[in-house]
């Protein structure tokens, strides 16, 4: 009597099995349609998610098989993204305030452009930090290793090479760029309509054009950089005002050490400008710039100007020279200065004529390089 009921049960089970087989066949057919690349991408995404499960809130990790861009997309604003050592081939858009930092430093963590005509890091959000990468391969003429269309960003401890532009600031304000090596690019650092940024303690060399080029930019500080062996100029300003260029070493550039075009109110102080193949400092259509306490050493021509500028400290400064203390205006050291210093105060007795195109003078030329003078804290 139970036989019909058992038969019905068996038939029901067989029906379920048949349905499962049908689903399995459909799944296999679907998988066959998916490319191996998509499967690998899916597996990488799942791996990244699994590895970040249980991590400290606001802390994300990127592994070599993963993608920096995907992790940034998932990260919350204000998070820190730690990138494990390896080579990542990507172009990365950063649209939220995050810290992106390598775990092992630039020698072991490389970002290679996937598309050489797209910025490698494109920062479009404020308060982003990029720390500790080698960034290379954005070889398009206008392609940057790092492009800032944002404010208050930090770029530090990177090696940026073989890009159309090493670092580009476009309408960027109050960002800090420091402790980077920027070498072998087209332009080293480019500022366009960018104000109140700080560029300091970088090595900017062997770039195919200029070390630093700034257009229509105001109140930036360029301090303690080593700017050497660039194929055109060390620094060039076009239509720039009220910037500070201070304590830089600007040597052996193929054209000018510093070129100011139509730029006013800039302060140049404490720099060493030497062995540049054209002018150490060229001021073309530039006036009311203040130039003092610099060393101009063995340039093809130490300086030239075509408008009125100020070639000494605006006010007297307290300084020590050869064990004695003085107060007075300070000009610049010129390696081709021939005047004497009869009273031994470190200031030449005869004015130095700046260039030959205009009747301009440094009235307080230093008779020795600036390392022979000690300035008061208030003075410098």
What is the strand arrangement across the widest sheet?
A: 1-2-5-8-11-14-17-20-23-26-29
Name the poorly predicted regions.
none
User: In which range does the helix fraction lie?
Assistant: 10-25%
Number of distinct beta strands: 37
Total of helices = 3
- Note the beta-strand portion: 35-45%
Rounded to an integer, what's the Rg over CA atoms? 30 Å
Instruction: Sketch the major β-sheet.
Output: 11 strands, parallel
* Whole-number mean pLDDT: 91
The end-to-end span amounts to 109 Å
Structural class: alpha/beta
Q: How many discrete structural domains?
A: 1
Q: What would you call the shape?
A: elongated
Which key terms come to mind for this protein?
single chain, 380 residues, alpha/beta, transmembrane, membrane
Structure characterization notes:
- By secondary structure, the protein is of the alpha/beta class.
- It has one domain.
- Strand 32 and strand 33 form a beta hairpin.
- It is elongated.
- The N and C termini lie far apart (109 Å).
- The mean pLDDT is 91.
- InterPro entries: NosD_dom, Para_beta_helix_rpt-2, PbH1, Pectin_lyas_fold, Pectin_lyase_fold/virulence, SCF-Subunits/Alg-Epimerases.
- This is Periplasmic copper-binding protein NosD beta helix domain-containing protein.
- It comes from Candidatus Methanodesulfokora washburnensis.
């Amino acid at each position: 009597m139970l036989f019909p009921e058992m038969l019905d049960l068996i038939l029901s089970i067989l029906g379920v099995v048949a349905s499962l087989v049908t689903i399995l066949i459909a799944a296999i057919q679907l998988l066959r349609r998916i490319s191996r690349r998509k499967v690998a991408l899916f597996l990488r995404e799942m791996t990244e998610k699994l590895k970040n499960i249980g991590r400290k809130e606001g802390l994300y990790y990127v592994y070599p098989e993963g993608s920096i861009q995907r992790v940034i997309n998932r990260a919350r604003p204000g998070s820190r993204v730690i990138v494990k050592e390896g080579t990542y081939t990507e172009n990365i858009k950063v649209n939220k305030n995050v810290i992106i930092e390598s775990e092992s430093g630039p020698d072991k963590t490389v970002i290679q452009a996937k598309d050489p005509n797209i910025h490698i890091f494109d920062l479009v959000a404020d308060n982003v930090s990029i720390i500790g990468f080698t960034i290379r391969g954005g070889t398009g003429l206008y392609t940057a290793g790092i492009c800032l269309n944002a404010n208050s960003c930090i770029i530090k401890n990177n090696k940026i090479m073989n890009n159309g532009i090493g670092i580009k600031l476009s309408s960027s304000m109050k960002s800090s760029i420091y402790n980077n090596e920027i070498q072998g690019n087209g332009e080293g650092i480019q500022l366009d309509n960018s104000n109140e940024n700080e560029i300091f303690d970088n090595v900017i060399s062997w770039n195919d054009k200029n070390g630093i080029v700034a257009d229509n930019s105001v109140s930036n500080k360029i301090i303690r950089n080593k700017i050497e062996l660039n194929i055109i100029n060390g620094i060039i300003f076009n239509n720039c005002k009220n910037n500070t260029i201070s304590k830089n070493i600007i040597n052996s550039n193929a054209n000018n050490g510093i070129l100011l075009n139509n730029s006013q109110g800039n302060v140049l102080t404490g720099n060493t400008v030497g062995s540049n193949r054209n002018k150490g400092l060229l001021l073309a259509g530039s006036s009311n710039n203040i130039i003092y306490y610099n060393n101009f050493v063995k340039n093809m021509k130490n300086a030239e100007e075509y408008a009125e500028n100020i070639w000494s400290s605006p006010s007297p400064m307290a300084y020590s020279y050869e064990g004695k203390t003085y107060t007075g205006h300070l000009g610049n050291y010129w390696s081709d200065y021939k005047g004497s210093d009869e009273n031994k105060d470190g200031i030449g007795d005869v004015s130095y004529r700046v260039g030959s195109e205009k009747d301009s003078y440094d009235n307080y030329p230093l008779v020795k390089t600036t390392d022979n003078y000690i300035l008061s804290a208030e003075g410098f």
